[in-house]
Amino acid sequence: MKGYLNLFDFTQKVNYKTEILAGLTVAMTMMPESLSFAILAGLPPLVGLYAAFIMGLVTAIFGGRPGLISGGAGATVIVLIALMQSHGIEYVFAAVALAGVIQILVGIFRLGKFVRLVPQPVMYGFVNGLAVVIFMSQLEQFKTVVNGQTVWLTGTPLLIMGGLVLLTIAITVLLPRFTKAIPPSLVAIVVVFLVVWGFNIDTRTVRDIASVSGGFPPFHIPQVPVSLATLQVIFPYALIMAGVGLTEGLLTLNLVDEITATRGNGNRECIAQGSANILNGFFFGMGGCPMIAQTLVNLSAGARARLSGIIAALTILTIILVAAPVIELVPMAALTGVMIMVAIGTFEWISFRIINKMPKQDVFVGILVAVITIYLHNLALAVLIGVIISALVFAWESAKRIRAHKSIDENGVKHYKIYGPLFFGSVAAFSEKFEVMTDPQEVIIDFSESRVADMSGIDALNKITGRYQKAGKKILLKHLSPDCRKLLHNAGTVIEVNIIEDPTYPVAM
Q1: What's the Rg (C-alpha) of the chain?
Q2: How many percent of the chain have pLDDT more than 90?
Q3: Which residues contact 59 (CB under 8 A, 6 or more apart)?
């Protein structure tokens, strides 16, 4: 419990001014995104802000690492659009709560560690694709609706929007050269706000998206029938939402680990995310997950502790309760400029410098993951496909590594010393190593430098021993590790095995 109660991470030095200013900046950038995704899903705008508050507060206090920002993210909300259209908002709340239960179970059973299986090329593709998605989404602010049609801005409105966005970007880029005492993103938002207000410039503001005023999130039990039929409806959506949220969350956690040179706790983050989503289901929120863009805003502002996330969440609640009239006047151009800079900062530019040094298959995987992320906006699917292809490439390369050193001792016994893993990808090459018809009467296969990894390997051993026995020759297997012998025993395989010289292979934990 000590780790959970240590809200502000007193084990490290905390710059309270930096944390507070970073939290305010994060809140300003999180609001329009949460509102936009709520409207996109057909949900009331306040449902998005409630999600930002609940997710942000719970995960900032109990999450797996400081600096990570969660809120009403589009990656998880997009999953629920079909459910909202077919069954309504009550089923959405039920699905969000169930997704939270699934995420808690993942954390309790310590399954969050499997995110370590995501290769670096997949990470590059994921981050670069997400950077492009963030940038492309900001282009929507340069459009307007005319006669029911969405068209690009032209003339004076375009010049005003473009000029304010460029002013925001300029402040964000130039201010750190003079001082780093104040987050440049927050300064940019305030300056653009004052310019628009002072010169009475006609441009789109937060109010044009939706009203952000309201009360405290109300307790609300989802009004759905408690039945197996309801579970059949919401479970697929809940499972996908939980998977998408954890995938994006744990990948973002790994990214923050790299940036801050520290290590977070993935399983603890799963439990915190799940708890927050359960609260969302019962307090009128649309659920969510870690938001990589807002997390990068937070880190770029210098925040490294939990306080910034708490400030961001409380700021959003304060805005809902009392400060909505002021915040609704903030120009969307300022927020667009900040998010464009976030997209530029998110992109892994180093991937261009090392692309000619990477294996071709890794380059292909990275580009494929980025393309899927950009065009399908499905981060979980993109990462899953990337991991599968990387695994298949690894299996193919490992299959080519199996070798056999052949020798005959003074007793006329032929020895095959196997190097490399024996698994489904290498069984064909393994079988080709043996010269059954020309071999002497006794043959020993030495596995001290190899390992039988799966049932395909066992089947290959069965076949090769069968070929020797059919030829009337004696075959011995030696130096099989205990786990390999257990595989053979469990498979019911009858193989004559010499275990006298078998060494003990401790399993590294």
Answers
A1: 29
A2: 36
A3: 68, 70, 269, 272, 273, 276, 290, 309
CB atoms within 10 A of CB 96: 31
Q: Which residues contact 369 (CB under 8 A, 6 or more apart)?
A: 121, 122, 124, 125, 126, 129, 382, 383, 385, 386
**CA triplet 83, 84, 87: central angle to 5 degrees?**
70
Cα(81)–Cα(19) distance, rounded to whole angstroms?
Answer: 35
Give the alpha-carbon dihedral of 440, 442, 443, 448, to 10 degrees: -150
Q: What is the pLDDT of residues 72-88, one digit of tens each?
A: 887 788 778 889 989 99
Strands 70-71 and 289-290, by their bridges, are: antiparallel
Contact criterion met (CB below 8 Å) for 334 and 188: yes
Helix, strand or coil, per DSSP, at residue 352:
helix
Phi-psi region of 446 (alpha: psi -120 to 50; beta: other; left: phi over 0): beta
3-state class (DSSP) for residue 105:
helix
Q: Would you say 35 and 48 are in contact if contact means Cβ atoms under 8 Å apart?
A: yes
Rounded Cα distance, 286 and 294, in Å: 18
Q: Which amino acid is at 321?
A: L
Pick the closest to residue 306 from 73, 1, 59, 53 (CA basis). Answer: 59
The CB density around residue 344, as the number of other CB atoms within 10 Å, is 15
Q: How far apart are CA 299 and CA 296, in angstroms?
A: 5
Contact 109, 271 (CB under 8 A): no
* 3-class SS of residue 302: coil
Closest CA to 76 of 244, 252, 285, 272: 244
User: pLDDT band at 490, cuts 50/70/90?
Assistant: low
pLDDT at 440: 93
Whether the CB-CB separation of 451 and 484 falls below 8 Å is answered with: yes
- Check: CB of residue 49 under 8 Å from CB of residue 285: no
**354 Cβ neighbours under 8 A, 6+ residues apart:** none
**Contact assessment for residue 131 and residue 343, using Cβ atoms and an 8 Å cutoff:** yes
In a 3-state reduction of DSSP, which class is residue 1? coil
**Residue 428 in contact with residue 456, Cβ under 8 Å?**
no
Q: For residues 457 and 463, what is the distance between their CA atoms, to the nearest angstrom? A: 10
Q: Of 292, 351, 328, 9, which Cα lies nearest the Cα of 130?
A: 292
Backbone angles phi, psi at 437, to 5 degrees: -70, -30
pLDDT at residue 7 in the model: 44
